[in-house]
Amino acid sequence: MDTLENKKIAVLVTDGFEEVEMTKPIEALEKEGAQVSIVAPEQKVKAWNHTNWGKEYEAAVMLKDADPEAFDALVLPGGVMNPDKLRVNTLAVNFVRHFTQHGKPIASLCHGPWTLIETDYVKGKKVTSWPSLKTDLINAGAEWIDAAVVQDGVLVTSRKPDDIPKFNEAMIALFASMPESVKANE
Q1: Active site residue: 50, 98, 102, 111, which one?
Q2: pTM higher than the cut 0.85
Q3: Long-range CB contacts for residues 116-119, cutoff 8 Å, separation at least 24
Q4: CA-closest candidate to residue 18, choices 9, 28, 26
Q5: Where are the domains of the chain?
Q6: Residue 50 annotated as catalytic
Q7: What is the CATH number that goes with domain 8-180?
Q8: What are the residue ranges of helices labelled H in 32-86?
Q9: Active-site residue among 50, 98, 102, 110?
Q10: Is residue 102 flagged as an active site residue?
Q11: pLDDT tens digits, residue range 37-77?
C-alpha cells in the first residue's frame, strides 16, 4: 500500500525510548510509503527493551539541525527515560511545539505525552497514556481516558506496547487524512 506516499514523518527520541514503540510504528509507516526520519539530540540513541538496554539506532537528523517545516507529522514514542529527557530539552520542546502550533498530526504512545505537556498542547484534549501519567496529564488540563487508542483532532495517543497494532492503525489513518505539506513536496 502507499497511503502515506510523499509524507515525511519525524520520530523524536533520545536514549531510553521503548524500542518497540519506535520500531513498530516506523515499520508500519514505511510499509505505507512514508519517509520516516529518526530525529534525536545525539547522533546515536540507545533503546530500552522492557527491562534492559536495547539496540542502538542512528539518527537521520540531529535535533539541532532539524527543521520541523520539513515534516508532515510527528511520532513521540514512550519509554520512561525518553520523554523525561526530551521535556527538559528546549530544542525538543520547540520542535514539538511547531507541530502543535501548525495543526500537524501527532501520534504519541505510553509515556510520550509527557513531552506534549511542556507545550501546553494537551490542555482541553482527550488523551490516553501509560497509567502513571494520568495525574500529570489531568493536571495539565487533559481529559485522560483509559482506552487502547484515543484520538482528539490531529492527536492520537495510546497506552502501552500491547496497543501498538491499534495505535498504528489509528496513526496511519490520521496521517493519511492530512493534506500534504507544500514544504515536504518541494
Answers
A1: 111
A2: yes
A3: 116/76, 116/155, 117/87, 118/87, 118/93, 119/93
A4: 26
A5: 8-180
A6: no
A7: 3.40.50.880
A8: 81-86
A9: 110
A10: no
A11: 999 999 999 999 988 999 999 999 999 999 999 999 999 99
